[in-house]
Amino acid sequence: MGKVQILAILSMDGCLSELNPKKRLFRSPEDYGMEEIRGKALYRLTPDYTISILQDQREKEDDTCYLLEADAKTVGYANGLIRMNAVDEIIIYIMPCIIGTGDHFFKSGLFPTDWTLAENRKYGGGIIRLTYRRNRKRR
Predict the structure, then answer these.
(1) InterPro entries in the record, alphabetically (predicted)?
(2) CATH architecture, domain defined by 3-134
(3) How high is the pLDDT of residue 29?
(4) Please, are residues 5 and 87 in contact by the beta-carbon 8 Å criterion?
């Protein structure tokens, strides 16, 4: 079965960092492993990609990675994928800033789910990357 990943760049208060262009802290994406993550994805998801088509394709294709980059335009779609249990990994970059306004990544209405921290990495300037994998079995 294919893997669905969401990549999000968040401030410490959980806001999508791109909503405040003055707070762009990345020198370049390759410095933080983002190009590697993007390179492993065979498909880049957009809100035009229906969840039913995604579920059908990922059942047919093993070792295929689908990537959605969360931003102001895709955050609703990202939360829909999470709500429908269609996400296997969430990769979060936490930026060392508080934006204070903007769109929060996780919206209300999500069901409680368990995730396991699979990887964490610290970069210069206080940037942290956390990779969480969904626990498929309920306790």
Answers:
(1) DHFR-like_dom_sf, RibDG_C
(2) 3-Layer(aba) Sandwich (3.40)
(3) 62
(4) yes
